[in-house]
Amino acid sequence: MKVAVIGSGNIGTDLLVKILRSKHLECGAFIGRSPDSKGLLKAQQLGVKTSHDGINYIVENPDCCDLVFDATSAKAHFENAPILDRLGKFVVDLTPAKVGKMCVPAVNLDECLEILNVNMITCGGQASIPIAYAIGQTQKDIEYIEVVSSIASRSAGPATRNNLDEYIHTTENGIRIFSGTENAKAILNLNPADPCINMQTTIFAKVKKPDLEALKPMVESIVNKIKHYVPGYELLLGPTVEDGRIAVIIRVKGLGDFLPEYAGNLDIINCAAIAIAEKYAQAKQSKKTQSTSV
Hints:
Layout: E1 2-6, H1 10-21, E2 26-31, H2 38-45, E3 50-51, H3 56-60, E4 67-70, H4 74-86, E5 90-93, E6 101-102, H5 105-108, E7 117-119, H6 123-138, E8 142-152, H7 158-162, H8 164-179, E9 184-191, E10 199-207, H9 212-229, E11 233-242, E12 245-252, H10 264-293
Parallel strand pairs: 1-2, 1-4, 2-3, 4-5, 5-7, 6-7, 8-9
Antiparallel strand pairs: 8-10, 10-12, 11-12
C-alpha cells in the first residue's frame, strides 16, 4: 500500500525508515515544510519522493498514497484532518490532537480498521494504556490510575515540548476510556541525565481489594502482544502492591532506526503506527484478493 508521511522531523524520519523496511508499505511521498529539513534530505538520500509543500502536495497529487501518517503537531492536524477526510485517505495521527478514534494495537487494533482517522494517543499512552486496560478488566472499585513517564530530555524535540498540555490531556483521556476509570492522572518527566536514560513508565492504581491473581496473567499476555510490534517493550516490575496501590513498571528501548535507542518514547508510538498501517494494508489486500477471486 502506498503511504505518505507529513512531518519531516525526528518522528517522521524514523517512521520513514520503518516504512522502507515494511513488506506491506511503500512510501509514495515524504512531506515537510522546509526544503532544508534534515528529514527531507535524509529521504532524498534514500531515494524517496519528497516535497516541502505540506499537505498541499497530497491535495494536488492524491494518487501518491492511500494512507497518510500525520507526524506534525496537534494544531496542524486539526487543519489536516478535514482535508484528508475529503480525499478519503486512511489517516494514522501521531499527534495528540484527539480527532480520530484512539488506537492501541495490543487492545483495539481490529476495531480501528474501519475508521478513516485513528489517533495513536501519545508515547506515554502507548506504554501505559495497555496496562491500565488490564487493570480495568480485572479489578473492581478502582479509585484512580496514575501514570508517570520519564524520558531522556534529548528525545523531546520541539514538537513534543510544544504539545505538552495536549500530551497530558490526551494521555489522561486515553487512560479513562480504556480502563473505565473516571480519575486518571498523567505526569511526564524530562530527564537531563547523561548518558541518556531509556523511557520508563510507572502505572499506579488505587484499588480497594487488589486482585493480583487475575491481573498478572493478563499483564503478561498483553506485554507479549506489544513485544510483537515493539521489541524493546519490557516489564520491569509487577504487578505488585506498594503502599496500598498496584504498581507496574515498564521500560521501552528503541530500535535505533533513525533515532537513538534511548528514544523509546518516540519509537513506541512509531511502532504502534506501523502496526495499524500494516494491518490496514493487509486487510485491504485481502478484500481485493477475495473480490478478484469472486
